[in-house]
Amino acid sequence: MPLVIIFSGSFCRAEEVARRVAERLDCPPIGAEVLQDASQESGLSVDKLIRALTGTPSMFNNLTHEREKGLIYVRAALARWLHTDHRVYHGLAAHLVPKEITHALRVCLIADRDFRVAQAGQEGLSADEARKRISKEDQELSQLTHHLLHHSPWDASLYDLRIAMHSTPVDQAVDTIIDSARREAVRPTEQSLQKAIDFIFATRINVLLVQKGHYYCDVTARGSRVTVIINKNVIRLEPLAGELKAIVGAMDGVEEVETKVGPEFNQPDIVRSYDFEIPSRVLLVDDEQDFVSAISERLDLRNIKSDVVYNGEEALQYLEDRQQAPVVMVLDLRMPGIDGIEVLRRVKRHHADVEVIILTGHGGEEDRRIAMELGAFAYLHKPVDVELLARTMKEATMKAREDETSDARQRDTAKKRKESSD
User: β-strand 29-30 against 88-90: which pairing, if any?
Assistant: First the structure.
């Protein structure tokens, strides 16, 4: 049997599915054990490891490097649990299993928002509490998969099997997974099993390097040959490469060590170039989940990071829950519940500094007129050229910064006048 790796949103009955698949395969399911083992080995709390997987790095990450270390320790713990070809794993670390391990059946359990809210209600949450929690956790999953894979968490290309739990009974979902697990395409092969062994070996080396202070390395292994990828800018590469080779070369089972520079090598640690036109905080609001996820991914490729919510109510709650509002909001007009015009009206009433770009496939000239009168920065139509959207977002960001500078000058002038009058 293959490994079964299950990834899901919250309140999709994934724990029940994982447990029953494991029972059918006669093996214990694993989940929280991975983070617990990683916590014990790393000294980082489980909460910090979860933030390393799902959160934005803290302002102190450049000093503590908890995100980089956390990912390495979680990957190593997962590798140890998956040392056989007979496991069922459900949890946040699912996407840390390399694609080269082809005997891992990758499953995504999804469900529509109404189903998930109803499931949360069975656990004692109110509808408002459920929607708020689901929105927050979906954003965290999006940050996780964007960071690791540059994809939406629900992208079909990441999985062998996706099951919509709002239309699929648990029994049927379990049967589907078991049937898929028996297919020839995911049976363990000598090559795939070797890739799993290489994965385990590489994670052991990665942990050793972290313990020696080298948190910025990625490690791959092919049998006894090891490649260490350096993702840190250094002035003198050769001495560092020599040190890494000495550490890794001393490990049992290593016969050859190669070092390479990775994509972060050319990014200076102290002074980094910064594009002041790129918005630091973006919120995308659209009920078409596939569409907005695709837009988020394509913006990410242009170094524009975004959070995503799926209706007007969630957008307004997002603004209330955060100390800093987004610089730019991209807002659909036609959504269930609170429509885009009303969201725009409330945003401009309570968060006037947020620049709102309307992006719609249904609005007419009257909608455009109302939106612009309410203070929208721009009014764009679907389907949108992503270059145009990115350019418009940068223009909105520059306006926001100019307004912020102007407001600061006015406050400074008023302060000086008050001081002189006193």
Answer: parallel
